[in-house]
Amino acid sequence: MLALLLACVPSREAPPSALNDAFEAASIEYDVPRDLLVATSYALTRLEDRSGMVSTEGGSGLMDLRLDGDVPSIHKAAALIQMDSEELEHDTAANIRGAAAILATMADNRELAIGSRVETYEHWYPLVAQFSGESDPLLAEGFAFQVYTYMMWGVIEEIDGETITVEAHSFPFLDSRTARARSSLIAQFIPASTSNYTDSSRTSVDMVVIHTMEGSYSGSISWFQNPSSGGSAHYMVRSSDGEITAMVDEEDTAWHAGHWDTNSRSIGIEHEGYISDPGKWYTEAMYSASASLTRDICDRYGIPIDRTHIIGHTEVPGCSGSGGGSSCHTDPGSGWDWNKYIDMVKNAGGGGGGIGPTGALADGDKSGWFEAKVSSDEYGLTKVCNGPVNGKATSGHLYVTANCHLEHEGSTGDFHITWSGEENGSDILGTVVVDAYSDPFEGVIQSDGSVVSDLSGAHDLGGDIGVVRYEATIQIDP
Ligand SMILES: [Zn+2]
Known about the structure:
binds zinc ion, 3 domains, Lysozyme-like, 8-stranded antiparallel barrel, disordered N terminus, Porin, single chain, alpha+beta, 6-stranded mixed β-sheet, 14 helices
């Protein structure tokens, strides 16, 4: 009887498992946490290989390995796993394996430098920042934070009939970073290369143009920092949480529309993701943040909230085909819900963290001076470096960078210090990042004409180096 019943059960094919198998195999072979590989891919491409299409930042495959550039280079990955670069472009398992090999190499180098094993997720954090390939520490750390956010949220995604899952993690070492996220509409100002926009003194605009990056948030920001990209946008919006990075002052003409007349009268907003996968990228958080930004722009310039003045790149004239500027762009695609977006812009409350200047901090280029003391208790070592800082203030936001060169017993290190803050009454609330290796730490500075900031923090590098402390003073000329 039992045998008869069993015989009646239709034979079922095993569910597909190629993608899960590829992550598992790469994790075991290179000793990189499996969830970290999946979350990194999820942050970069939502686990889609896009049929070989290259992203804006020149990346290929599920892990967005770069065809040009040093990190994460598809050619270096190919060499590490002894395959051809072309195979990594088209073979998903090889692409994942190559990325794991790069991360493993980074871990090896880090172990040599600090004399202890890279084991915990906390140890991997700066390596994920490094894997982003971003030279701006704020951006690199932001990428790591995004990957870890996906691990904290957990991931469930269906790809070609296969379910990829990451169980929710808890990362206590990121608690302070999580609590600080999104305190204002614009998270940071990361300037586009001056080769990628036209320096202007615009006081009025009458259009907002909506774009899709066809790439990741960090990769696209980094692309607009590259002088050879020949493109830029005023604002970049992240899919996961609606974080916004400003890249070009509104008074300047960003090159986003592929049509000079449109560029010269508009603000361009780029949204993370791909038009082929709107359901995965156009999140409520992104719609909402973008709508608040567009509302703020419309209020400040008196722009009517309608589809004549808020348009998609595809509606920009000047293309030899139907539209989308000189190179016929189609973004944001049919998956962008215009009715919902315009409603959200109309309903976005005034005073929701507007971006107009509120106090004494005048817009413009900023210069100043800094001194930073870096010390290691373990070595009994204290090094001081100082020098100029450069940056700019725009719409109540201050962004400055400094470089610090240290030497100790024949080894040298360069620290890039990035300070970013938002004006709030008479204070500027901000964070500083010292390379991608430190957690960002907070500081409050007074904006009474000249700006003086005292910042301090510590980061445990583990191993022989132990806790490294930073104390920095930054002074911005009035
Ligand atoms: Zn576009």
